Amino acid sequence: MKAAGAPLSKMMYKDQGGGTRGGSDTVQGETDRVHIVAEIGLVLYPDCQLSAIYGLTDLFRIASDIAASSGASIPPAIRVSHWRQEGDAIVCTHDSAPRPRHALSHVITPPSIVLPDRMQPMPHLADWMATLHRGGATLCSVCAGAFVLAETGLLQGREATTHWAFAETLASRFPAVRVDVDRMLIDDGDIITAGGILAWTDLGLTLVERLLGPSVMLDTARFLLVDPPGRAQRPYGQFVPRLDHGDAAILAVQHWLQATGAKEHGVPMLAARARLEERTFLRRFKNATGLRPTEYAQQIRVAKAREALERTRKPVEQIAWQVGYGDPSTFRKLFQRVTGLAPNEYRRRFGVVGGAEGSGPAQRLDSALLPA
Fold it and tell me: What is the mean pLDDT of the chain?
């Protein structure tokens, strides 16, 4: 997104006062010093829900305050900035931790207070978000914010959620998006969508867990008296891909693997997509992601299998085939190696469809909020 004749790089990180920004990993205040683990940008588009903007701002501040009480010499914190379009510029209007430069790692489009058919097109914001995504930022939406996110084109072929009342409109306007409104939140690694108009709490807590850890997330949920998201208390870590490594060729391959479910991951094909020689591709992929391509593909497939086990009654054999494994025995061995549990045991512990009443994660998480 840019004005005629104006370089995009000069338009993306403009402050309301006209200055450009940048920074380091720490912020030194009068009485405290913190380590900024991420900068989350909240998008103030026309007719967006301001309560979500300010609620998320408060949620991330509360989480950072809780993290600061951990006793670390340089406690972690989340930086929050607000962005809106002014003319052809995307302008920062609020910054919780001003620094010389911005480094947006996450961007959130909040709900709208008008129906989707009254939301105006936002191509400049969509271009800005797509550019940040190519640089490694994770894009997120809540409720009708999915319509803004979908304008980037990055939801094509992917599962996404929105408010149940808007599902038909989203599917009609963006037919390549696989709309699933049975789920409150869909975490697809580099893109996260949340459903209801108040689902910003689910999204906010999901990001807090990812950035500051599960204990901070649970303490934040207790303080706010809201239920933690369904993933909160799992004893097994999620696959969170590294997207901020700065290698554009590898990042493009990561995005393609995520969007396609990593069903095809042969090194010759991936190297060709990256336009690199195979040995160079393997070295750069490992340096950027910390994993070999096969390991990375396995993590994506297992993550999608976890969701299917949690959310559906499909047989394990069918799930194995859907995520790309023709041999269920191979899938079971790999799943247990990655998660520490056999697929059926994982479903018994974490499934929210079927099984004994009150045994799923939602019930256990509700009880976690009750006083001891």
Answer: 85
